[in-house]
Amino acid sequence: MALIAFPPPKDPEEFERIVEQIAGPVLRSQQVNLNGRRGQAQHGVDVGVTTDAGEVGIQCKLTGTLKIGTVREEVEKAKGYVPKLTHFIVATTAPRDAVLQAEVRKVQAPFKVSLWSWDEINSHLNRLPGVGLEYVQHVLVGSKEVSERQHALHLREALDRPALLYRAHAERAFVAQIKALKDTSAFLRTGLLYTPERRVREWFAIPSL
Amino acid sequence: MSGLPYRRYSDDYADALAKVVDRVGKLDSYTGRNLPVLIDAAHPEHQRVINEAEKRRIAVLDAANAILDDWDLPLLPLRP
Q1: B45 touches chain A (CB under 8 A)
Q2: ipTM summary value
Q3: Which domains, and CATH codes, for chain A?
Q4: pTM of the prediction?
Q5: Between β-strands A47-51 and A31-34, what pairing exists: parallel, antiparallel or unpaired?
Q6: Nearest to A178 by CA among A38, A40, A52, A30
Q7: What is the mean pLDDT of the segment spanning A65-91?
C-alpha cells in the first residue's frame, strides 16, 4: 500500500507534539511526557517514555540534515537524565540516511541509541490514522481565530473535567488526570480542543508564547 | 512558516497562558513520573507524592482562574 507523504512540520513544538503522540503506541506505553516548553528539554530529552523495558528518552531535532556530531552531543547530555535511560532516540525531520544510521549504531553509551528519521515517523503517521489525520487536517484546513475572551472560555472548557477538578486518589483517577492534562496541553500548544471522548471539537489559533 | 495556527494575542494574555502551559507541563510530568508511587498506597513515599501532585493540580487551576477572573468568566472550582 502506498504511504501518504506527510510534510515535516516547521515548528519545533509541533514536531515534539507529533513525536509525543506516536511514541506511546510505537513504544507500547501509556506514560509519555513532554518535558517543558521549547528550549526546556531536560538533559537533551524532550519526550520521556516509561516502558516495561525501562525509561526511553527522545530528543526532537527539527532540521533538514542531521550530523553524527549532533547525535553524540545529545547522547552526552542524555547521560545526565533522571531516571536513567535504557534507550535514547533522536527523532528528526531529516530524511533517512543509511550512513548516519550505521554511525549511530556505533555510538558508545550506557543505553541503546536509535534514530527516527522523518521517513520512519511518516510510516508511523500512516499506521496511526488518528495522529496522521489530525496533523493533515491542521495543515490543510487551518484553524479558527477567536478573541482572547473566547480563547479563555475554551481554556476553561479544556480544564473543566472531574479528572482535574477533583483530587485524584486511585489509579483510574490518575490515568484520567494524565489524559486530561495531555488534552489541555494539546489545546494550549496546538490549538486542538478535544472532548473528553478524545474527539477533536475545534481547532483554534494559539498565541506565539 | 509554521504549520501551527499562531495568532498575535496581547503580551499580558500570552504571559498568563504561558504560566498555565508551564504548570500543566509540570503536573503532567510529575504525575507520569510518579504514577507507580501514586497508585501504590503502601509505598513509603505515597502520601508525600500525593500531596505534591495535589499542590501542582491546584497550581494549574490557580493559573487558569487568574485568566478567567480577568475576563469575568466563571472560575474553576477548587475541589478537595
Answers
A1: no
A2: 0.89
A3: 12-127 (3.40.1350.10), 143-203 (no CATH)
A4: 0.59
A5: antiparallel
A6: A30
A7: 93
